[in-house]
Amino acid sequence: MKAIFKALKISFFTGQYDVIYHKNTKKGKITFILNDSGGKLSITPSVSLLLNPKFPHCNSLLIEEEIVALVDTGIDRKQLERILKETRIDLLINTHTHPDHVAGNSLVSKTTSAEIYVPEQEEGNTLSLERMKSALGVLGRYVEPSWEKVVKDVMGFRESERETTYGEGHVFDFGKTRMEAIHTPGHSSGHFCFLLHSEELFFSSDLGLDSFGPWYGYLNSSLEDYLHTIEKVKKIGIKRVISSHADGIDDDLHKGLDRCLEIIGMREERIMELLKKGERGERNLAKYGIIYHNLNKFKGPMREFLTFFEENIIREHLKILVNSGKIKC
């Protein structure tokens, strides 16, 4: 954050404490406001990033023009309630339907008349928890009770009342700003990133451009698809990028993508080391915290929740290793 915002001003508005940072860029002044209801990164006069990047939540993108749009509802409930109270929302657009990104869809559907858009590849997941469980590979698995507890009690997910779908190349027109949907599978089958051409800005959602790196831990995730997506996104000429789980703006999209590949490579090397020592199967390999290095610090449902992800991500690596001939089944 210090590298991005170099000037500091402290002010008070309506009794609420706000810390305001500024940075001058080629695209104009960027303002970041941090208060007790969460952070708001104002990228342009009409485009802001609502900050709550730490899993099990995520950032939301807010575009305020002739059409007011919210991208994802994974900020916590208090933040979302405040936004819905202060702002008219005409469109809600989900980058994908993992529960940390759609937890507040039900609140939007119940309290507004906004159109709700979800990726066509993941249609129905926000309307039915059972359908979501099936799509994500949770239904009937050992993790189901813990997963449901975390998704309902921690994320606050409830089933939405309505949705419509969008697909590759769909352009959302808000007035001055137009946002193009780019299909980027891997994290999920229906994962989308967004290009805001006039702002020269790329919203990467869960592409992995954050401190954790690439994530592909559900049944509808695919490491193979993710690697193809990296090559696809590298062809995009825009450098400025914001994401769902980071709290600033990155000025080098390609550098971030190269870092994702490095992390994937390091994970593969660690798996190969353990395989050479005689370890077999994702359940045994998961004990070493290859993906979640601090896994042992978690207890109860969250520990089981993350272990499930660890096993699935390792399984994706094992598929790649088998298909490439580096290991045998």
Task: Kindly describe this structure.
The protein is of the alpha+beta class and 329 residues long. It has 9 helices and 15 strands. It has helices at 77-86, 99-102, 105-111, 129-136, 144-154, 223-234, 253-276, 282-285, 300-323, and strands spanning 7-13, 16-25, 28-35, 38-42, 47-51, 60-64, 68-71, 91-93, 115-119, 164-166, 171-173, 178-183, 192-196, 201-203, 241-242. It has a 10-stranded mixed sheet with strand order 1-2-3-4-5-6-7-8-9-10, covered by helices on one side. Strands 11-12-13-14-15 form a 5-stranded mixed sheet, with no helix packed on it. Strand 4 and strand 5 (47-51) form a beta hairpin. Helix 5 (144-154) packs across helix 9 (300-323) and helix 6 runs antiparallel to helix 7. The radius of gyration is 20 Å and the shape is globular. It starts with 6 loop residues before the first strand and ends in a 6-residue tail after the last helix.
Write the topology of this structure.
Blueprint: E1 7-13, E2 16-25, E3 28-35, E4 38-42, E5 47-51, E6 60-64, E7 68-71, H1 77-86, E8 91-93, H2 99-102, H3 105-111, E9 115-119, H4 129-136, H5 144-154, E10 164-166, E11 171-173, E12 178-183, E13 192-196, E14 201-203, H6 223-234, E15 241-242, H7 253-276, H8 282-285, H9 300-323
Parallel strand pairs: 7-8, 8-9, 9-10, 14-15
Antiparallel strand pairs: 1-2, 2-3, 3-4, 4-5, 5-6, 6-7, 11-12, 12-13, 13-14
Beta content comes to: 15-25%
The main sheet comes to: 10 strands, mixed
Please identify the oligomeric state: single chain
Q: What is the typical, i.e. mean, pLDDT?
A: 88
Q: Please count the helical segments.
A: 9
Structural class: alpha+beta
